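User: Here's a chain of 391 residues. Predict its fold as tokens.
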Amino acid sequence: MSEPSAPDLAGVVAALEAAYPPALALDWDAVGLVCGDPDEPVSRVLFAVDPVPETVDEALDTGAQLLVTHHPLLLRGVHGVGADTPKGALLHRLIRGGVGLFTAHTNADIADPGVSDALAAALGLTTVGALQPEPAPALDKIVTFVPIGPAIAQVHTALAAAGAGRLGNYSHCSFATAGTGQFLPLEGAVPAVGEIGTLERVAETRLEMVLPRAARRDVVAALRAAHPYEEPAFDLLEMAPLPSARGLGRVGELPEPEGFAAFTRRVAAALPATAWGVRGAGDPDREIRRVAVCGGAGDSALDAATAAGADAYVTADLRHHPASEHALAGTGPGGPVPALVDVAHWASEWPWCAQAADVVRSALGGSVEVSVSRRRTDPWTTSALSPEASR
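Assistant: Prediction complete.
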């Protein structure tokens, strides 16, 4: 039995972008393929949080043709990538070694599942939703009335071409019912059916299709152009917004409640060790059941964690003043403010690497070998407690 042939880089990128759509990335972010030839074959992919010398070394040493990282190498605009600069040197090494670089950053944070799902799973949480849900696309519904006959297909096709009737991976979606339309042409009218001054009743089809709100103008224009009537009747309805599973952070629940001190130990045991370690702010005996998490820097979501009714909030890079003011507030819209667990940024996002590796493994099967870097690229390398803290 022959070995499956290796896919090209474009095929691996397509699998990753299907899971982490680039359109989800925040407008300041830089995601996607940084270097690499889309036509080159890829048989081995390495996943890591950071594109740094250690992970570039590992990719080259293990024979990987693609390094996938969460953090961008070139987040801000550059005018050159000379090999005499730290980042330029990394790119030159990757290119000379035939290794592509791909980044999924805030698009992986917002995706479902994404970075915070991997963090929640590592902690043993059952997720119930996003901490800060991404608004679902705004939708309208257009309802129009078309005389029975060839015009129905003509109008339906025109509306679909203008963007109506798209639901997920389906297009031309609609619903139609039969009925009777009535109208009286007045002086100045040019009726397609009937005569001026005579009340007309016409067998018609009520046609309904949803559309993105951004396509409203195009769809209405298409309706007017394709409809046989001089003045087509139609309703344009704004649909109520739907909750989205996408968004920053996740809210989940533990299988059983446990004290905050024990929960802090749970977090430390679930994540890779760092010099920073894991810090907790709250009553050590407080009962923890409902937990909010956010991979990466998450102090901007402190209010969201409180509003979600979380007993604890796990994130990284908590700053002194926001954390202190949070504790000082005592209560919020969801009740008592959650206890805080502050972990190293790198550690909070490292579980995502295995999730992303599974994406490629599931999409491409045995044709690609995937691995996750275990090299600690957290920038903090040592720590010490003061003598008083150790007493």
